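B., you asked whether I could sanity-check this one before it goes into the benchmark set. Here's the sequence:
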Amino acid sequence: MKITITKNEQKFDQRAAWTIIGQMLSKPNSVIGLSTGETTKNMHKIVSDIYKANPFLTEEVRIFNVDELTNLPRTYAGSCFSMIKTQICDNLNIPEEHFIMPPTFSDDFELECRNFDESLEKAGGVDLQMLGIGWNGHIGINQPGTPFHSTTWVSPMDPIFEARVRKETGVDDNYPLGGLTLGIKSIMNMKKVVLIAKGKHKAEIIKKALKGPVTTDIPASVLQLHPNCEVLLDADAASML
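And here's what the prediction gave me:
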């Protein structure tokens, strides 16, 4: 496992952005997985700004997000589809057919999980996954306790995130919400994973994930076993290592 520490948040965002761009330049038909949230918003903007100033080939790039909310419309600004489309795909002129995402509504989510996996396999497998880490060590929406052999499935959200989504969307507590996510086995089969974290609020969980035992209690800890994993941190996130 390679650990890269940048001296501040700005350098982190730039380094992360160039990781994505570098993959696109080195392999124009790359399959690239992204993540959403505060960690990735600025780095996606940098990718878009660089492309606008110096366009490069993107027609064959395939983009997806590691997870997606279920039972909410894609038009919801907090849906992964909406965020990746507006932050990356539209700005880089990624063809719609090369934006691989599961639907947010379905009568058969087990089938949608299989279809999502098959779409990525048909595209040639995942070349690069930019992977965030949650406050409790979740990766994708694989919460603590998720078996390491899990494949793509619909997982419950973490309680803090779920409460925010319910507040933003106005759905009541009885309305079923979840997240269709690539499973831990799926993530471990990717060709390269870059675990990304910034800010002091991530320092403790980063220490547990990288220096603690490999355990399902901290799903991100399994990345210690990945054959091609880089951890990209700013100085604050790395402050407890």
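One thing to flag: The beta strands are 2-6, 31-34, 62-65, 67-70, 99-100, 128-132, 153-155, 178-181, 193-197, 229-234. Otherwise nothing jumped out at me.
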